[in-house]
Amino acid sequence: EPADLVALAQQVQQADDFIRANACNKLTVIAEQIRYLQEQARKVLDEANRDADLHRVACNLVKKPGNIYYMYRRESGQRYFSILSPQEWGTSPHEFLGAYKLQHDLSWTPFEHIERRDAEINILDKLLSRQAALPPCTEPNFQGLTK
């Protein structure tokens, strides 16, 4: 019957529309994830460039991870690290540029982010120590996800 053919054609069209909309929604999510990953990659590269630059700053002492270093600029334009803060200098003979903590992975954390970064590291250390205490699991475990 013609009415059945029309209904069948409408059903096929609806299925096509639904599949197209569903695929579009999924692609939108993937595009958002790609943008997020691109931004993360940009941050990683910016931090790597900053860290490499800071490792090239003049320093007359052995830098030790966990310590804070204060960067100054001489009148000649040369940048250098010191262990003395501007407060400890009193009146510094050179322009203060910033303070950085040398992390154990040899990355640098700007002074204003040290507290947050230390908190993140503490959380990760706790997670790693808990993870080490867990028994080995040889099979997939979805416990807690199905309830």
Automatic annotation (TrEMBL):
Pfam family, one: DUF2452
PANTHER family: SIMILAR TO CHROMOSOME 1 OPEN READING FRAME 50, UNCHARACTERIZED PROTEIN C1ORF50
Designated name of the protein: Uncharacterized protein C1orf50
Species for this entry: Cuculus canorus
Native organism taxonomy: Eukaryota, Metazoa, Chordata, Craniata, Vertebrata
